[in-house]
Structures are given as structure tokens and as C-alpha cells.
Amino acid sequence: MPKTLSQEENKQLAISLAPMYGVTDFTTRLFIFLLSSCDKMTTPFLRVTETYPHKIPLEWAPDIFDDAIKEKLAFQTRLQMMASCPRRFSEAFKSFESFLEDVELNCGCPSPKVVSHFAGSSLLRDPEYFSDFVSQIADNIGGDRFCVKMRTGYDGTEDFDRLIQGLARIPLKQLTIHGRTKADKYSFFSRNDLIHRASLILPYPVMASGDVLDRTSFQKAMKEMPNIKGIMIGRGALTNPFVFSEIKDENFLRPSDLSYFKEALLCYGLLVQISKDDFSTLKEIILDSDFQESYLDKEEKWRLLFLELYERNFKKKFIGKFEGDLDVATLGRVKLLFANFVKGLFHSGSSKEVLRSKNAKDFFFELDLFFKKLVC
Description:
Layout: H1 7-12, E1 14-17, H2 26-36, E2 40-42, E3 46-48, H3 62-65, H4 67-72, E4 76-83, H5 86-96, E5 103-107, H6 112-116, H7 127-141, E6 146-151, H8 160-168, E7 174-178, H9 192-201, E8 206-209, H10 215-224, E9 230-233, H11 235-239, H12 243-248, H13 260-277, H14 279-288, H15 299-314, H16 328-344, H17 352-355, H18 360-375
Parallel strand pairs: 1-9, 2-4, 3-4, 4-5, 5-6, 6-7, 7-8, 8-9
Helix pairs in contact: 2-13, 5-7, 7-8, 13-14, 13-15, 13-16
């Protein structure tokens, strides 16, 4: 049987939300915190080039760069950057360092566009080049503020030991390993054996990323990688937002009534839309609200937040029907999140009509019917 970690051992582990490009922007990070009690996040990568970024758009990461917002939130966010030049990476960090405790280098993105620009997982092609790249940044900014996230290799894992041996000579704050190669993308199983091997060799904390979906898979991971200091969870958090609570508290039980997810999804759509239309309005809401604790299954809190967001967005009170609209991109993001929840949580009931909805009004009408049928 997998080892069951004690409450104290769980507290010592860093359990965080993985960066997912195009998914875990600020509004999603805020939403995941409210829904799931995740209190450690990492931004999707910020691409560093010769001319960008000269400054950070406020709405990109206000949980890092806006002190007023940062004080109102009970989760911590790490900045992840991607670069094909160690000098540019170091210069970008130094321009932001007054806001940062540390920074993470992305050496794992498998996107063809990213790889073609010699960034992300492209850095893993040559172990010597990789260690030299990382070493230059560590020398420039200090290893105590420098983290790296990588995969187990490029086309295969034959260079994994050389990649790790090169890192062993470089002072880092933390290394996170996604247990797949660039070629694997998001297929196949995470190579926990390789991550465990690295955790025995490296003189600093190693975190694992890949295939943790619930308490059972977490316990399996800890049995296979007992030396790791934390777990980073990506797609598993989208299909099972309870995963953070399940890991932190072995006595946690999923709520039997999940109808509050309807209110939560309404809130998510409005948070995204308000952020896109007028970020200053979202900032006002955050500063006026209590986001020091997760809402979890507290339906009344979700309801009150929805009413405030609805009135702020549509300039009128909610009177029982969703009468406003969301733009196509925002509605698409809400549908994507709902589809993930259906896959992981709602095993009964048909979601087809919800996902086929053409506008926000129809979507939330069908969503209401979906949850009524679920309860019945």
C-alpha cells in the first residue's frame, strides 16, 4: 500500500499549481484559489526577447507586481520566464527584482514555435549547452533566487543523467522536473523513477510534475519519489480542483452536493470578462473583497460574489435570469473549464447542450438545467 503522509509531512511539502500557457492567467489563478485552497502558483511563461518586456502589463500578474492586490490575496505566485539568451533573462529579472523573491526558467515547453526559437525544451538538446545556459543565469542573479523547470529530455531520456549532473554543479533554489520528454508532450506516463534519481543526486530541493490527479495518485508518487520536496499539479487541478485539499488533509471528503459549481462558473466568466474590459474595475473588486480564504463549497459566498460581479459588469442588478453576455473568447474559456470539470467530477448527466450553447444567456440557462438534473 502507498505510504500515507502525516498532516505534518504534508505541510512541509510544497503543493502548487503548474503554469499552463493560455489557461492559468491571473483570473484563473484567483479562481483556482477560491475554489480549491491552492496557495502556491506559478505564472505561465513570460517570453523574454531583445525588446520585450520593457514593462509588464498590470493585468498580466498583479499578484506579483501590484502591492495593493498582492496584500489582499492569500496565495503566492512565482514568475516564470522563458528565453533563448541567458543575458536577456538576467537583465529582465534585474528590471523586476524588487517585486520578486525568485524567478523560474522554463526549460520544458514543447511548443514547436517555442522550440524553433531555441527556448523552452529546446535547451535540453545539448547537456553541455544547457548547463552553461543555466550556470550563466545563476552567476548573474544568484542561485538562491533562481529556479528551473525542465523535462526529462528532448527526443528521449538518454541524456537525462548528463543533464542532471550538469545541474548538480550549479547553485539553484529549486528544480522542478516534468516527468516527460519534449517528444512525449503530454502523452505517456510520468517517469517518476528519473525524478527520484535526480532528487538523490542534487543538493537542492526537487519537485515533481506529472500524473497527480487525486490523493491516491499523490500517495503513489510519494512512494516512488520519497525524497522530493513538493508536487506541481497542472491538468489534474482542472479535472479535480479538490486535489489540493485531498493532499493537504487526509480526512478531506468531497462535498456531496456540487451544485455550487454553477455559481462558481458564473463568477469565473464574469471575472475574466471584467478583467478584459476594465482591469481597474477588477482591482476595485479585489480591494473591496475578502480573498484571504478560499470559498471552497460555501455556496453563499459564491452567490454574493456573483451578484457583485454581475452588477459591476452589466451595470444592473441580477433579477433571476442571466441577461447579459460574454464575448466569444470568454465564453469559450468558461466552457473549457466546465468540460474539464465534467470529465473529472460530474460522471452523470449530459453536458452536450451546455457546451453547444451559442451565447452566455443560453449557456447559463443550460448550465442551470444541468445542475438541477444532477441533483435529481
